[in-house]
Specification:
alpha+beta; Alpha-Beta Plaits; four-stranded antiparallel sheet; 6 strands; 33% helix; globular
Amino acid sequence: MSSQGGVDIAIEMGMDTNDFLNLKTCSIILHYSPERVDAAVQLLLSVVGQIEVKPGCRSCWVGRSVAEDSWINYREEWDSEKAFCLHIRSEEFRRVLAAMDLCDEEPRVMIGILKANCGIEFLRKLRAGQD
C-alpha cells in the first residue's frame, strides 16, 4: 500500500475501489525516554521489512509523533487472525516486544478487527451525501 499526503491508495494494493476490508490489526503506542527512543525506533524499523513479506501481512509501519519526538506509533495489519497469531509467536515479533520493554511506561496495545469500506469511490459516495 502506498500513501500520498497521508491518504492510503487502495487501487495500488490491487483492490477494487468498492472492496470491503476485514483486517486483524495491532496498534501500539510507545513512549520512550530521549536516551532510548532512537534505539527503539531502529529496533522496530529492523523488523518492518521482514514482517511485510510474511504471508497474510497487509502492512507494517513505524511512525514518530510530530508533536512529541519520544512517542512512537507501531502498526500491523493482517488478512486473518490465523496469520496474525502465527506472527506473534515469531522471532520478528519478539523484537517488537523487546522494543516495548524499552518504554518508560506501559505501552498502549490495541488488537482488533478493522472492518471498513475502502477506496476512493466509497469516499466520493460519502461526500456526495453532504451539502
